[in-house]
């Protein structure tokens, strides 16, 4: 009970309850936190004693098992499981008896291994997009000016002048395909760097409402469902209408051409376009 | 039992279990075969997964008069993703680390239990099961717990997964005869999924069925490249099972394989991930399987509800099973043997090359995640997800909260031995809708497209009403035959669970969770 009260007291001080404080945390609350300096020291031990069998990332080789998936390693807390195991004696590549490893060396190894585990998780430093520049810029230019219809709204000497200097290739790709999100990723598993560094504003969706027998009112769409529609008119005022079967409501999305493109564009077209836009330095 | 002082009406669970008390240790296998009217006794209302109520007080003609009865705001656990059970006038539901008992007529709190957590992802809890005087729920830190429904006092707790391996528990247990069927969650590390059966009285493990083979030579092992790959092949059991008492089979929908996205080290179909599997609830032995996403690479678990439909096909009674799967495909199977009768789409997708002879999709390798990105529909969230669908025998329509959604899928780890996820999707464009499927043809009968995002569980009734969460933080009633919008009521958040209905004192209630609040509507006379 004492243990419980102590934990609950901390939660109360932080103003969090139940799952709120824990929602982003996979694994137990006492998950080991990696000491980077210790992990670096552990890497030295690893290279000298372990790497031949367990591999550079501890994912195993033909000579030794994967330790990222090892239950013993996953249960370990700063050497709590690893040290008794090594004390019993385990083959090392240098021939040094594993039982002779100091406590600090074992803790260093534990930190190194925990770092490898953490590296497999979403959001880790190595959970990042690779090189996506695989397309053909010439074909991309042709698509831009032809089948893609891009040139009807965009210009390499206008809004796209110097775009490659403002955005990374993956951000160009995301912004091009999903302009309404600004290319920003959502949901589970996006991990590090999911949102591109772009500040381009998303064009406004507008709506025109014509009540039965009344005049058409237009403005920026604020909210619409089956029952009501709200717009911001030219004066900046909000107007809400209750929808009726004889009310005419016309929504205009300036990004509709992009949405329509989703069903037409091929992956090759997409990669070629990015390659072309990447030439616009 | 040692009980800590009440804190704001909260019962805090301590580690000392109550001695077992008397109570039914087994459930009549036919108990929840048909939908109840005065209760909602199990996750889907009955064992079929249809979420259809025969109540007719609320109809497509009078639903506009549905009025607010009460609201109950929870005090911990985040959004209500659980489907409440209603038994003897009390609603029982769970949020992560929290269990609530609420008066079904007034919304008054009967009791609230808070669980002391040791961790785990608190993404949601789908709900509880009840057998006699005892309630069962799962905790994010890998426990199955039994409480007394009268006061929330603890009877026993059992560990059902290993938190250090990044498992957690979020599923709603389902009681079948003398079995509490429990699933497990977690896909951050490469661990095997499984489903378990526990003794309702003691919590003791009765059997465990691994979704992925654990030994060479096991069924399905030939669809994995190595022992290591299949032993760490994922396949979580996120959702409650459905059950056919006549066949004595539970239907388990299984999760995606691991590593989730990068897949160089798990070539093959990766059975029995992303599948519908029929198990004997007494033994855990598999009767048949159908794989909805062979060699999935998009996080498309197939854990959407396997809904049981009885019909006459080609002049003879057929026991069917329908699923609108996360990958956008719609399947109707013969639930006696798993043979596909219908394989189609409930939204347009671009990731497959048709269906094989078994009716299973054939994945297009070019639409698997790529280093430079592959534009794929659906996105990671899927064309459908965990919110439960509904089937109305009155209209013959299968309703599902659906999305036409796109994203670009990347491989982040190009090595030959990726771990965890090794990639993901980014970006997205999505259009939400309710699709009403003719299960006999696999075609969309009507589509109600939302202005904005909406994805909730669904409820259909014999009053020709379909209840759903709308895009404006509202609950919406649609005409179940046509999809026309009939009524709505604004809430404090999007509907976050599957609505239920019941009759008490001759009044039909409709209950929905939205964010941290449970809302009750009633047809006043």
Task: Describe it.
The complex is a heterodimer of chains A (281) and B (525). Helix content of chain A is 35%, strand content 10%. With 281 residues, chain A is α+β, with helices and mostly antiparallel strands. Chain A has three domains: 30-119, Cytochrome Bc1 Complex, Chain D, domain 2 (Orthogonal Bundle), CATH 1.10.760.10; 137-187 and 258-277; 206-253, SH3 type barrels. Chain A has a five-stranded antiparallel β-sheet, with no helix packed on it. Chain A is elongated. Chain B is mainly beta and 525 residues long. Chain B has a single domain, classed as 8 Propeller (Methanol Dehydrogenase, Chain A). Chain B contains one helix and 37 strands. Chain B has a five-stranded mixed β-sheet, with no helix packed on it. A five-stranded mixed β-sheet of chain B has the order 2-31-32-33-34, with no helix packed on it. In chain B, strand 20 and strand 21 (316-324) form a beta hairpin. The longest helix of chain B is centred in the middle third of the chain and has 5 residues, at 227-231. The interface between A and B is large, with 71 and 80 residues.
The CATH homologous superfamily of the largest domain in chain A corresponds to: Cytochrome c-like domain
**Total tally of structural domains of chain A:** 3
Number of DSSP-assigned strands of chain A: 5
Q: What's the number of domains of chain B? A: 1
Span from first to last CA of chain B? Answer: 45 Å
Q: What is the fold-level CATH name, i.e. the topology of chain B?
A: Methanol Dehydrogenase, Chain A
Number of separate helices of chain A: 11
Which percent range describes the beta-strand content of chain B? Answer: 35-45%
Flag low-confidence runs of chain B.
1-22
What's the tally of helices of chain B?
Answer: 1
Determine the structural class of chain A based on helices, strands and strand pairing: alpha+beta
Find the CATH superfamily of chain B.
Quinoprotein alcohol dehydrogenase-like superfamily
């Amino acid at each position: 009970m004492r243990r419980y009260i102590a934990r609950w007291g901390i939660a109360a001080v932080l103003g969090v309850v139940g799952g709120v404080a824990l929602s982003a945390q996979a694994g137990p609350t006492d998950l080991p936190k990696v000491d980077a300096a210790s992990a670096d020291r552990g890497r030295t031990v690893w290279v000298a004693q372990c790497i031949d069998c367990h591999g550079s990332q501890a994912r195993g080789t033909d000579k030794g098992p994967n330790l990222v998936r090892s239950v013993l390693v996953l249960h370990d807390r700063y050497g709590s499981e690893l040290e008794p195991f090594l004390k019993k004696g385990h083959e090392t590549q240098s021939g040094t008896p594993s039982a002779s490893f100091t406590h600090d060396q074992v803790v260093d190894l534990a930190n190194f291994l925990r770092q490898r585990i953490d590296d497999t998780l979403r959001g880790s430093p190595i959970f990042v997009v690779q090189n996506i520049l695989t397309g053909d810029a010439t074909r991309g230019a042709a698509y831009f000016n032809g089948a893609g219809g891009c040139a009807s709204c965009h210009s390499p000497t206008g809004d796209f002048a110097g775009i490659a200097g403002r955005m990374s290739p993956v951000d160009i790709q995301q912004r091009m395909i999903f302009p309404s999100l600004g290319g920003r990723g959502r949901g589970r598993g996006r991990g590090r760097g999911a949102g591109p560094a772009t500040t381009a504003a998303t064009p406004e969706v507008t709506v025109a409402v014509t009540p039965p027998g009344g005049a058409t009112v237009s403005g920026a769409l604020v909210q619409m469902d089956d029952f009501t529609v709200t717009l911001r008119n030219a004066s900046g005022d909000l107007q809400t209408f209750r929808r009726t079967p004889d009310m005419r409501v016309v929504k205009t999305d300036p990004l509709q051409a992009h949405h329509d493109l989703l069903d037409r564009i091929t992956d090759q077209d997409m990669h070629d376009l990015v390659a072309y836009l990447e030439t616009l330095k | 039992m040692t009980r800590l002082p009440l804190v704001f009406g909260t019962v805090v669970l301590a580690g000392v279990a109550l001695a077992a008390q008397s109570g039914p240790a087994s459930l009549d296998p036919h108990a929840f075969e048909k939908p109840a009217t005065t209760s909602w006794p199990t996750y889907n209302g009955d064992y079929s997964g249809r979420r259809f109520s025969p109540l007719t007080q609320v109809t497509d003609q009078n639903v506009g008069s549905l009025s607010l009865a009460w609201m109950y705001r929870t005090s911990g656990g985040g959004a209500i993703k659980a489907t409440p059970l209603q038994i003897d006038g009390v609603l029982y539901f769970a949020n992560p680390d929290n269990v609530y008992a609420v008066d079904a007529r007034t919304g008054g709190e009967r009791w609230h239990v808070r669980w002391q957590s040791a961790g785990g992802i608190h993404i949601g809890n789908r709900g509880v099961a009840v057998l006699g005087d005892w309630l069962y729920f799962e905790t994010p830190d890998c426990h199955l717990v039994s409480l007394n429904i009268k006061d929330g006092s603890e009877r026993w707790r059992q560990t059902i997964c290993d938190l250090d391996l990044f498992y957690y528990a979020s599923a709603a247990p389902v009681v079948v005869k003398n079995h509490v069927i429990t699933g497990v969650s977690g896909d951050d590390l490469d661990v095997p999924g499984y489903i378990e059966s526990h003794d309702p009285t003691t919590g003791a493990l009765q059997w465990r069925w691994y979704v992925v083979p654990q030994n060479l030579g096991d069924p399905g092992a030939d669809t994995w490249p190595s022992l290591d790959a299949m032993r760490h092949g994922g396949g979580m059991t996120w959702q409650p099972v459905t059950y056919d008492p006549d066949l004595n089979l539970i239907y388990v929908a299984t999760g995606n394989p691991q590593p989730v996205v990068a897949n160089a080290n798990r070539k093959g179909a990766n059975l029995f991930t992303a599948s519908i599997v029929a198990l004997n609830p007494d033994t855990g032995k598999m009767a048949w399987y159908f794989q909805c996403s062979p060699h999935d690479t998009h996080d498309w678990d197939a854990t959407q509800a396997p809904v049981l439909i009885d019909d006459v096909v080609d002049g003879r009674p057929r026991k069917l099973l329908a699923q609108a799967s996360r990958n956008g495909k719609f399947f109707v199977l013969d639930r006696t043997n798993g043979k596909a009768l219908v394989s189609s789409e409930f939204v347009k997708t671009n990731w497959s090359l048709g269906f094989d002879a078994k009716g299973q999709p054939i994945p297009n390798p070019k639409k698997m995640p790529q280093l430079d990105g592959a534009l794929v529909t659906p996105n990671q969230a899927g064309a459908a997800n965990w919110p439960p669908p509904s089937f109305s025998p009155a209209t013959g329509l299968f309703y599902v909260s659906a999305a036409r959604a796109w994203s670009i899928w990347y491989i982040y780890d190009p090595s030959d031995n990726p771990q965890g996820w090794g990639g993901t999707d980014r970006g997205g464009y999505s259009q939400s809708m309710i699709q009403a499927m003719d299960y006999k043809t696999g075609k969309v009968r009507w589509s109600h497209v939302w202005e904005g995002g909406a994805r909730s569980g669904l409820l259909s009734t014999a009053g020709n009403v379909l209840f759903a969460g709308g895009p404006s933080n509202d609950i919406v009633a649609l005409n179940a035959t046509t999809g026309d919008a009939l009524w709505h009521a604004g809430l404090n958040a999007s509907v976050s669970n599957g609505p239920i209905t019941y009759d008490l004192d001759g009044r039909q209630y409709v209950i929905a969770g939205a964010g941290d609040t449970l809302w009750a509507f009633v047809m006043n006379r």
